[in-house]
């Protein structure tokens, strides 16, 4: 069945069914969305169907479409003139739309390709192997499940996920999935190195000492989140990832060729088209907080697709749920009588906990003065 209008979608969403029972059955299968696809489903189960307003793509023909900048990092660490131009571009993108792509970033194409292949190997291995890792206990060193907010969201996303923390306390090799163990370790090291450089450039874009953000320990934590978006029989009914902003300092995203990532800009969804060899960087809520709204953390989403599987690897620079007493607030060097602090100080854990326990909106509103 092909659904062609919002009335049909509403009828499907509002039909009488035992949602709690269906959620429980899906979760207890420990097979995820991939398990549904492997079983041969030809319709999207009701727990995934979204209301029409979630699926709308508002466009205004009178508005100029945003183009997500692609920034060439070649020479950022050897050529002062190039570095200044790159800093200006990074700063402009961070202020205007919170998203940019980087090429010539130093991570070899071969490692990025093997990282994507490793994610595919993990999800496409025997389901009995994966089931042993399936959990909703976020204190585990490695968490694999489908939809972290399965029992709280209004509709599930067409996506499976596993994640682990690779800094400040990286997992031992034997704790990592065998299917991607070696490349996950190597890729994490490469992204950490790139992250330190990005924090330098972002510091200079804020007219601060290059080491400022690194000395604030913004690069202390790294969570690696590996998503798998199976081909969807009715992509017009659901989403791969629902609208959200990231609650970290920034995110480095490796995506494959399929696409589907969109950024909300001026109430329009803008595609972030895959660029060969590029990594997507987006500003997170915590960086918006400490930059006192200079840099923007913007909402984004991923469309479901019928081409899949789509794979992506999102590296979040944050210590997340790990305990720390370190406080983060608007950077004092950025403040003045004309630019007073807009947020109160918080620990990273309290910031992330608020999102986990008190709602799906960005915690920024809660911490705003």
TrEMBL record:
<dbReference type="InterPro" id="IPR005123">
    <property type="entry name" value="Oxoglu/Fe-dep_dioxygenase_dom"/>
</dbReference>
<dbReference type="GO" id="GO:0051213">
    <property type="term" value="F:dioxygenase activity"/>
</dbReference>
<dbReference type="GO" id="GO:0046872">
    <property type="term" value="F:metal ion binding"/>
</dbReference>
<dbReference type="InterPro" id="IPR026992">
    <property type="entry name" value="DIOX_N"/>
</dbReference>
<feature type="domain" description="Fe2OG dioxygenase">
    <location>
        <begin position="218"/>
        <end position="320"/>
    </location>
</feature>
<dbReference type="InterPro" id="IPR027443">
    <property type="entry name" value="IPNS-like_sf"/>
</dbReference>
<keyword id="KW-0560">Oxidoreductase</keyword>
<dbReference type="InterPro" id="IPR044861">
    <property type="entry name" value="IPNS-like_FE2OG_OXY"/>
</dbReference>
<comment type="similarity">
    <text>Belongs to the iron/ascorbate-dependent oxidoreductase family.</text>
</comment>
<protein>
    <recommendedName>
        <fullName>Fe2OG dioxygenase domain-containing protein</fullName>
    </recommendedName>
</protein>
<dbReference type="Pfam" id="PF03171">
    <property type="entry name" value="2OG-FeII_Oxy"/>
</dbReference>
<dbReference type="Pfam" id="PF14226">
    <property type="entry name" value="DIOX_N"/>
</dbReference>
<keyword id="KW-0479">Metal-binding</keyword>
<keyword id="KW-0408">Iron</keyword>
